Amino acid sequence: MRYNLITSVLSLFLITIACAQDGGGVVDVTNKAALEAAKGASGTVEGKIAKAEWSRSGKVMNIEFEGAPDFVGAAFEKARVKLDEGFNGDLAKTLTGAKVRLTGKLDVYGGKAPEYVGRMQIIITAANQITILEPA
């Protein structure tokens, strides 16, 4: 019985990682192992956004998820106009509190903000990378 339980749990874990690696599944942003397994690949993450806001300089929007200290989404100033146009004129307002899926290349954060170092990240450049599952 114990062997069957261990085998089942291990199988489920490996399936989750395989789906994350081939882009065939949606990774929960709170699942650190699945995020890390998908590093360098295109994929989709899902979760509820705690906060989406532009930096004071307006150069970057950081998208933080509830219960997900190992992931951050980002959008940059050069894409701001088209992203805002795709979401009722204000992407940050639309995202905050919403349950979403973000699609793109999962990689390690490469910026300078110390609070994001080591996190996995997807950079948003187009509105079609964002799917609102439940509005705020």
Q: Your description of this structure?
A:
- This protein is α+β, with helices and mostly antiparallel strands and 136 residues long.
- The protein has a single domain (2-134), classed as Nucleic acid-binding proteins (OB fold (Dihydrolipoamide Acetyltransferase, E2P)).
- Helix content is 29%, strand content 35%.
- It has four helices and eight strands.
- Strands 1, 2, 3, 4, 5, 6, 7 and 8 form an eight-stranded mixed β-sheet that branches.
- Strand 1, helix 2 (32-37) and strand 2 (42-54) form a beta-alpha-beta unit.
User: Kindly, what is the distance between the CA atoms of the first and last residues, rounded to a whole number of angstroms?
Assistant: 44 Å
Shape verdict = globular
CATH superfamily: Nucleic acid-binding proteins
The tally of structural domains comes to: 1
CATH topology: OB fold (Dihydrolipoamide Acetyltransferase, E2P)
Q: Evaluate the radius of gyration.
A: 16 Å
The string of secondary-structure elements, in order, is HEHEEEHHEEEE
Total count of helical runs of at least 4 residues = 4
| Percent strand | 25-35%
User: Which structural class best describes the helix and strand composition?
Assistant: alpha+beta
CATH architecture: Beta Barrel
Largest sheet: 8 strands, mixed
Spans of at least 5 consecutive residues whose pLDDT stays below 50 are 7-23
The level of helicity is: 25-40%
Task: Give the beta-strand count.
Answer: 8
Specify the CATH class: Mainly Beta
Mean pLDDT: 87
